[in-house]
Amino acid sequence: MIKELNPLLHSQLRLAIISILVSVEEADFVFLREKTGATAGNLSIQIEKLSAAGYIEVIKGYSGKRPRTVCRITADGRQAFEEYVQGLKELINLEL
Amino acid sequence: MENKILSQDESLELITRMIQETRKGFEKGGGNIFLLWGYLCLGVSLLVYFLFHYTSNYSVLWLWFLIPVLGYPFMYLIKRRDRKRIVTFIDSVICKIWIVIGFCTLLICLTILYDYSLLPILFLISLLVTSGVAMSGLIMKFKPVIISGFIGIFICFCFLFVPWVYQTLVFSAMAIIMLIIPGHILNLSVKAEQHD
Asked: I need a labelling partner for A19 at 20 to 30 A (CA). Which of A47, A70, A80, A93 fits?
């Protein structure tokens, strides 16, 4: 049976965030904004959604006097991503 | 980038592109830690050599402790200033290797406080550090660091055959080969990458 793709990850910006975080230990907000090209406001909202789902961990701190937000993927987030990729593969195989 | 729903192909393309983005080269200031320890080791070893040469006073050997005493606070400051925007798994592995090397070096230093003749200090510390440099180079897949690390490992064995007064000069040469040169090459390669 083909699994349905996780709707939380099946959105361009959220998938981009998770794809970056799955391949690093941690990334800060500025890096995510640069790589995704998203606006700060939109990125904040999507990070909040992923964090609320327990897919990422958000650590707010300071770098010198500047505030700095760092994001890390959680075990649940990694599993959700792996299931999402597996689902994609199954869908593509079905189309072929 | 927006919140639009993607097709399967778009999803795969996006995942691939984002993962590739995190694998691009080294970050700015990557060689600064090498340069800090390199110039510190060079400066202190030359200072010890010349002071001992002119005074023949064994208490100048205490100056070796300037390396950790100055090195660790400066390293903390540099790390705070050049804080990385991403921490990759490679960064994490290299960091853990240096924590172990730092710990072993500290234990060796404490041992000499008890009895300085117990261990071939410069040989052991240099072997640890050059091994760390070689391992870091292999993990980073950065040839200049790999080469200097392995040259350093070979030079380490000179400590066993050279009179101790000249060992400080061998240590100076090692600081240049295993830390200063790769540090500058690392920073230059980051600059070249940013120009591209």
From this structure: A93
User: What residues of chain A lie within 8 A of the CB of B21, using their CB?
Assistant: 20, 35
A2 domain residue, yes or no: no
| ipTM score over 0.90, yes or no | no
Does A91 fall in a domain? Answer: yes
Of A16, A25, A85, the CB nearest to B89: A25
**Could you give the number of structural domains in chain A?**
1
CATH number at residue A74: 1.10.10.10
B4 touches chain A (CB under 8 A): yes
pLDDT tens by residue, B61-109: 889 889 989 998 998 888 877 777 888 888 889 889 999 998 998 888 8
- The answer to pTM > 0.90 is no
Q: Which among A10, A26, A91 has CB closest to B86?
A: A26
Residue A40 domain boundaries: 12-95
